[in-house]
Specification:
Length: 387
């Protein structure tokens, strides 16, 4: 079936003419971002037997010719331009080559989205990307225009209330790396990068079965980690052979660790509260066969212990919950990890609460529902009230 090229015309023009990319690069970008694969059959409908899954450069070259997109002027056009220039008075001649200053150009996304150059207020960007045709590009536009101070983070949270925007937070670059995380590292202030990255991964988790996911090593590792119910399995999936670190980068890895840790912490604490209401408290009378409450308690402390000496901060509420768990069970594991974890959690909680706004508190106290419909079972397939 012939591909619909119309939605990509403006982007092809932008990449090929304005950015000066080769047709091979244009092909790879469209394939990575949108899964768009052009084939020979797009142009020779009568020869359907020649359909191939390999995107043909010839298809792009023929489409560019059809749209009369040319990087370079013809000899006749150059001659005509030279004659016109010769007829101008010296005062009207343009500045010499190499000294002309080009004004900043607009950023173009899709067929009809243009973003003006220069800084913009966060609410201006939000108004711009609420156009339905901007769904695919909304998060990318916001990140490219990012300004520090918190307004953009609040607008991103608002933007991701729309499930259509959440579907596209894990798009790829032409070299199959996570586009949004590269933009975070390029445009977002270092102190906000973890918060922004976490927000994107929470958004993906909330709609994972509907999201548009690239077929990459780092995506496979991320989804495998999301399917684990034990922290040891999560850790193995995220760190195995350094796949995520090599192919998605350190920021993605750090955000993934924190997001899944927070989800598991929340689930174990919820279960502990439920069991406590039923009169079931943690018990280690038989270390070989602990009761369910003790398993939840140990799971919680294991995850927290993994972040004990890390520069990555979990949300302050998880340190507060740890204090409650440890004080409720004063005879159980106060020296977990070889130090007084309760005192450390108390110090960390006070430290994070003293920070204005608790930088990741923007997520709110959402709940999520475990689902088992996905192969292997997953705690994360459905996140309720996430935004």
């Amino acid at each position: 079936m012939p591909k619909d090229w119309a939605p990509h015309k403006a982007e092809v023009k932008h990449l090929y003419i304005e950015e000066g990319r080769t047709l091979e690069e244009v092909r790879d970008i469209l394939r990575a971002r949108y899964g768009f694969i052009a084939s020979w059959v797009d142009f020779t409908f009568e020869f359907e037997y020649r359909l191939t899954l390999q995107p043909r450069i010839r298809a792009y070259r023929m489409r560019v010719d059809e749209w009369t997109l040319r990087k370079y002027k013809t000899k006749r056009e150059r001659s005509s331009q030279a004659d016109s220039m010769a007829a101008l008075p010296r005062s009207q001649l343009p500045a010499a080559a190499g000294r002309a200053v080009r004004p900043p150009e607009k950023l173009h996304f899709g067929a009809d989205i243009s973003v003006p150059p220069g800084p913009m207020q966060a609410v201006e960007v939000l108004s711009l990307v609420q156009n339905p045709s901007a769904d695919i590009y909304a998060t990318e536009i916001l990140l490219r225009k990012w300004q520090p101070g918190g307004d953009y983070l609040r607008v991103l949270t608002k933007l991701l209330e729309n499930p259509e925007h959440r579907k596209h937070v894990l798009q790829c670059t032409e070299d199959f790396r996570p586009l949004m995380f590269q933009l975070i590292e390029e445009f977002v202030a270092p102190e906000e990068q973890l918060s922004v990255g976490k927000l994107l991964l929470y958004a993906d988790l909330s709609i994972q079965t509907l999201a548009i996911h690239p077929d990459t090593e780092w995506m496979d590792a991320w989804q495998e980690a999301c399917g684990e119910t034990e922290w040891s399995g999560v850790r193995d999936a995220l760190l195995e052979k350094d796949v995520i670190l090599r192919t998605a980068g350190g920021l993605f890895l750090n955000c993934a660790r924190v997001v899944i840790a927070e989800c598991l912490l929340r689930e174990n604490f919820k279960r502990l509260r439920t069991l406590k209401k039923e009169g079931i408290l943690p018990s280690s009378d038989d270390p070989e066969d602990p009761n369910e409450a003790e398993v939840c308690r140990l799971n919680y402390l294991e995850i927290l212990g993994d972040f004990q000496h890390s520069s990555l901060n979990l949300r302050s509420v998880f340190y507060k919950n740890a204090i409650d768990i440890l004080e409720d069970n004063s005879g159980l594991g106060l020296n977990f990890g070889g130090s007084d974890l309760a005192d450390q959690c108390r110090h960390k909680y006070v430290q994070l609460e003293s920070l204005l706004g608790d930088s990741v508190g923007v997520f709110g106290d959402f709940e999520y529902t475990p689902q088992s419909t996905r192969e292997g079972g997953s705690l994360f397939q459905s996140i309720m009230h996430a935004f």
